[in-house]
Amino acid sequence: MASLDLFAGENHEVTQFSEQAYLLHGHVASQADTILSHLRDVIKQSPLRQFVTPGGGKMSVRTSSCGDFGWITDKKGYRYTDTDPITKKPWPPMPETLKTLAEQAAAKCGFESFSPNACLINVYHPGAAMGLHQDKDESDFSQPIVSFSFGLPVTFLWGGLKRGGSPQKVTLQHGDVLVWGGPDRLRYHGVKKLANGQHPLTGNVRVNLTFRVR
Ligand SMILES: O=C(O)CCC(=O)C(=O)O
Ligand SMILES: [Mn+2]
After folding, report:
1. Using an 8 Å Cβ cutoff, are 206 and 169 in contact?
2. What is the percent of the chain with per-residue pLDDT over 90, rounded to a whole number?
3. Which ligand 1 atom is the nearest neighbour of the CA of 147?
4. How confident is the model over 15-55, as pLDDT tens digits?
5. Phi, psi (rounded to 5 degrees) for 85
6. Is 124 annotated as a binding residue?
7. Theoretical Cys-Cys bridge with 190: which of 81, 132, 139, 155, CB 3.0 to 4.6 Å?
8. Which stretches within 9-64 are classed as H helix?
9. Do 176 and 26 form a contact (C-beta atoms < 8 A)?
């Protein structure tokens, strides 16, 4: 893992963990209070829920979305929708502050034209995990994924472009931002089971936001 000169002068450390995958340590930590309060508003409108995968299993993570599109799964498959299947209303708008922060993080990593129209909210309680998968329900893979993490730390798994092999392990802490795109856009990734813990801002959970161009 290398630190990049590209980011010299920034306060936060950056780790490049593959060709176009970057960990911006603590990058949104100072905005966490604001971001989490926006999320509370979103979740009041479109509640967290445990989706069922096409295979019939219930996901351990609790999910909602904001933006023009939200990611869903049910027996029919994985996809984006413009309305929340629970409320039957459009997904809550993506708060401008969140969109701007995600765009700025992408731009720092060389993705200047990123303008996300979907933000997936994942809330992990202890024991929740996400298996290795690709983010491939979007239509433009030239656009990166930008991911914010809050609350309890977790081990993020960074695999290859195909299944198999042993993934790299990257610890994600409160306020960390991941950006991946270009040749790394379709990498398999996931998170290990969340361990018990307490965080001053989130209690016993980890919150993850992924910003995408649907
Ligand atoms: O929780 C994370 O860090 C990753 C989430 C993820 O990969 C996804 O929602 O597709
Ligand atoms: Mn993913």
Report:
1. no
2. 94
3. 3
4. 999 999 999 999 999 999 999 999 999 999 999 999 999 99
5. -65, -20
6. yes
7. 132
8. 32-45
9. yes
